[in-house]
Automatic annotation (TrEMBL):
A single MF term (Gene Ontology): zinc ion binding
Known partners and oligomeric status: Homodimer.
Alphabetical list of Pfam families matching this protein: dCMP_cyt_deam_1 (PF00383)
Protein name as catalogued: tRNA-specific adenosine deaminase
Active site per UniProt: 61 (proton donor)
PANTHER family: CYTOSINE DEAMINASE FAMILY MEMBER, TRNA-SPECIFIC ADENOSINE DEAMINASE
Organism (species): Methylobacterium hispanicum
SUPFAM superfamilies listed in its UniProt record: Cytidine deaminase-like
Keyword terms, alphabetized: Hydrolase, Metal-binding, tRNA processing, Zinc
Cofactor note: Binds 1 zinc ion per subunit.
Amino acid sequence: MAAPTSGPIRSDPLDLAFAAARRAAEAGEVPVGAVVVRDGTVLAVAHNRPRALRDPTAHAEILAIRAACRAIGDERLVGCDLYVTLEPCPMCAGAISFARIRRLYFGAPDPKGGGVEHGPRVFDQPTCHHAPEVYGGFREREAARLLRAFFSARRT
C-alpha cells in the first residue's frame, strides 16, 4: 500500500522499503517494498498488493511510482530515486523508464523474474527511452532471507 509518507527522510530509504516488504509478507503478499525519494524527501512508500487489489500490476514499484506521481502532480519522476528490495521485473523496469527515475537501488537479484540485470535487461534495449543509473545488491542477504522465509512457509 502506498503510504501517505511525505517529508524529510528520517531513516535510510532501504529501511523503509524493508519495513514495507515485511508488511507485504504479513498480508500474504510476496515481500517486496519500494520507496521513491526526491531531494531528501520521501514521496511514496509501497509494498506488493496484487492479491489484495486483485490486480497483477500492483507491484510495489508500480504503486510507489503512482503515489509519487500523484504527490508531485506529474507523470515524470525526474530527479527521483527508487529503492526496492528486489530486482524489478520487466513490467516494473518499463514503468521505471517511462517515469524517468534517476537512480534505481535494489536488494536481491531476481534471476527468474528480474528485468534489469536478468531476463530482458530492459534498460539495455534500444527501445528503452530512459535508463536510470542502477545499483544492485544492497542488503542482498536480508532481502533473499525475507523471500526464502515467505516462500518456505507457503510450501510446507
